[in-house]
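re the bet — no i am not wrong, look at it urself. input seq straight from the record:
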Amino acid sequence: MENQITGRIYDIQRFTVNDGPGIRTEVFLKGCPLSCLWCHSPESQAFHKQLGLFDIRCIGIESCGKCLEVCTAQAFTKGEKVYSESMKKEITRVSVDLEKCTKCFKCVDSCPSKALTVIGDDVTVDEIMDTIRKDEAYYKKSGGGVTISGGEALSQIGFTSALLKACKAEGLHTCLDTTGFAKWETIKQAIPYVDLVLLDLKHMDSRKSMDLVGVPNELILENASKMAKEGVKIQIRVPIIPGINDSEENLRATAQFCARIKDAVTVIQILPYHKFGIVKYQRLNKDYQLDDIETPDDQHMAYCKELIESYGLTVKIH
């Protein structure tokens, strides 16, 4: 049965209001073919389950040290001494080498403070629908519904299409949040059950796209054009990253492309760059590469908005 198909998610959020109209439940799937330098959810990129360390929760090896005892791969070592606000004393936290981690997750089971977690959970369509149904009244009152996001939801197309189909069977509004980087045959499996596609345009120069997100952009633009021809409603989202993709040349190229598929585009959302995801990189022992870039100010965002609007497009600053 389709409702028993299993997918791997890393989060499910209720009462979200940013990724589609109204109040929504948003399901975040693991795995993405892109590796954007500014990605604010690095835990979404890998398809496999991962070990996450919330070191602020660590109660110290003086009081615990269970992870050091159970890890046969010797991925854990003594870390730095810090003052713990929760413990009201100085403690020695653990340090973890994720390259050594064999993903047995015995350390997670042994951690009394929940400082160690498994990022990734395998769930069925039925299990997700049980959560979705809890907020059905809010969807109806607000014009909301369900958003399938990632990672890249199209990378788990069997699960994604089955979940979208289940939502439509119950009369729910559906959004698909996608990079657009997938085979058209894959996209065609999902779009019959999608009311609105949320599509990111990262950079219009394919070579720069390769440098910034790890893939060229021809397939993404081609799929956007095909979706428009199929009558799919699309909300374009453009991250504004100073010095990366906010040049006049790139903004005009973005606007020109959107103007060509204007009938399908409901709105263009421009999103100011932020660093809210840095702490997630720390949990995964990853380096954040854009630490020197600052959030664009209101004046610059207004400039970007006006430039894109000059092509006859509706633009909103998120």
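see?? The mean pLDDT is 96. told u. also The CA atoms of residues 23 and 138 lie 6 Å apart. so pay up
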